Amino acid sequence: MDKLAALFDGVFLVVFGAWAYLVAKRRRRDEVGWLFIAAVAFWLPGYIMQDALFPLLAGKLGWSEEFQALWRKPSGFLVGGLCALLADLYLTLFLKALPPSQLPADEPAAGEGAAAAPPAEEAEAAPPASAEAVAPAPATAATVGTLRVRAEGPLGYLALYWPTAIIVLMYFLPTLDVVKPHMPALGFKRVQFGPYPPYREIAMALLVGIQVWLWGRRLMPSLLCALFCAAFIPEMNWMEWQWSRGSSYYSHGYLVPFVALVLVWMLRERLAKLEPKGDMCGAGLVTLGLGLLILLAGARLRVGILQGMSFLIVLCGLVFFLYGRAISRALLFPLLFTVSMVPAPMFALDALTFPLKEFATDGTARVVNALHKAGLHPHRVTAEASEVRWELPDGTKDKLTVAEACSGLKSLIALLTFGALLAYLAKLSRRNKLILFLAGIPVALLANMWRIVTLVLVAGRWGSKVAQPDRFVHDATGLGIFVVAFILFFTFERVLQRFDTSGPATERQEAAAPAAAT
After folding, report:
1. Which of 26, 94, 134, 242 has a CA positioned 20 to 30 A from the CA of residue 177?
2. What DSSP state is assigned to residue 406?
């Protein structure tokens, strides 16, 4: 039942998020920001309804346990879906398009493209501006470099991307309870305390090769990509096992490959103007050889981080070798973004956990004591190791322990990944993109401290039992970390945009000023 609910969660989030993304993009608004607004509008009210309001209503109205078990999760879907629907309707019906003066340089205002277009006779006589200028593909085909995607409509894209669809299903379907009993014969049953058997990854290598061949009808890239996946079967098994562990710091790793593919898809128009060249064959072979040596060293020393990093290095070497400098430059961030799915070694994570716990505990004590002086908290607290303690009026003592999972390291890793993605998509100068990415560190620390302060405030009022794990307040604040972090991220992005003196919007306004003066 939980897996089926997770499936519906994903469907709802994809539908409402895609709706918000597409409408915001059409209105030249912040499509990434609206995507997260739609996701939060669905998830947060639904979670509150499912785990707080529904049990409260059930207790007051005397509903039976069977009725509660049947309708608790659907009530969350109904309320969350309604809130997300209202958010998307507001975006669709009432949100105005961004003024032309605030559009980035690569998005002309309505009417500008037609006004700037040369007459038909001049266009026919004019030679191509550069060797990279290529005539656009017909309306029935999308072109990505030499990858000519002959697809039109849902059925056409399904016929083209069926290998990718099968890969996604291979990884997703075995998690559903209704499918699990039928999958062991195909190698989908998890080995206890270990990775999956390799049948799935062998099939994935074949499907990846077919997918690349369907894109470009070129044999060499297809064979190399298939061999790449086959060579890294143990490493992919190891990474996927690390992601799936209950105490994993890298549970977001499942999303990283799909996000990287979406980033490549967003670059399709730019890639359509570029042709593969052999100007990086030497660098590609050197990078490929270095990655394979690191792979052998990691396998010999049994160091997972080395094998995971070799995955990224070999992938970059393949792109350098097959496609050359121009395409590699365009794909550099999607390639480097995959490093966020490689789990760091446990000794490094353990070395960071304790200092972060101490920082969170001391900071929480300072904030709560400041609130106590202001009369907003009944007790003065003290920080001892990883515990926040306070004395009750009857002389007894109570405490809240900051566990390893509450140190903030998991949210720090996830938010640095999100910060890198947001900085790449933000319309900022390179310097401010770097600042926005590095802001993930203080944002993660502040969001985690907000959570612990909230738990201490609740525990100080109603006792520490209310804030223990598996309670609503504990789980809600754990997920609320990301809501607070997203608010801080997008607020800081707006501040950077306002003071950005070299971003796309500023360059556009400066270029338009002389034209307006004349």
Report:
1. 242
2. G
